[in-house]
Fold:
Amino acid sequence: MKSFVVMLAVASLCGCGGGGGGSTTAPPNQGVNTTPPTGGISVINNSFSPGTKTVAVGATVQWAWNSCTGDAYNGQTCVSHSVTFDDGTTSPTQDQGTFNRTFSAAGTYTYHCSVHAAMAGTITVQ
Structure:
């Protein structure tokens, strides 16, 4: 019982904090990495970045989901997106992770998000 009271007292002291000038709200988009993967494309809230890309025949492009906002203290909100090509190739609808596609023929490949129709991009293969 005595150890419980001591533990409770220590926990109470640790819970008290001094007054600081810190903010309790996270800045907008904190925790969002908008940098595309090396040679790839970021899937962020409402856009693909970059929206257009030119690659060589045989290149593999990676899309990386960076659509979570918030932080460990306030919680995260992640938005689901897809990479859906006009030729029928599609990624899963997901809120995190990556999707890769290898382009074996020259041409222009347009794609969009099946959840957010305004999100669109183009891969030009030369």
